């Protein structure tokens, strides 16, 4: 489920919605909790991208 690594064994899924500031297009990515934090840091450092929403998905 985690998009960061195919070998990631974490099964806690989080949904991250990102908007491209140039196109306005929003994309949805899925990560485990740990990799979600890493990805949010990357997005916040990228002036072209904005975090729209980050949600823990409960099974
Ligand atoms: Zn992961």
TrEMBL record:
Protein name, per record:
Uncharacterized protein
Native species: Halostagnicola larsenii XH-48
């Amino acid at each position: 489920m985690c998009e960061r690594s195919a070998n990631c064994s974490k099964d806690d899924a989080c949904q991250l919605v990102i908007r491209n500031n140039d196109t306005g297009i929003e994309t949805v990515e899925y990560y485990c909790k740990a990799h979600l934090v890493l990805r949010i840091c990357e997005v916040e450092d990228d002036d072209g991208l904005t975090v729209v929403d980050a949600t823990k998905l409960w099974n």
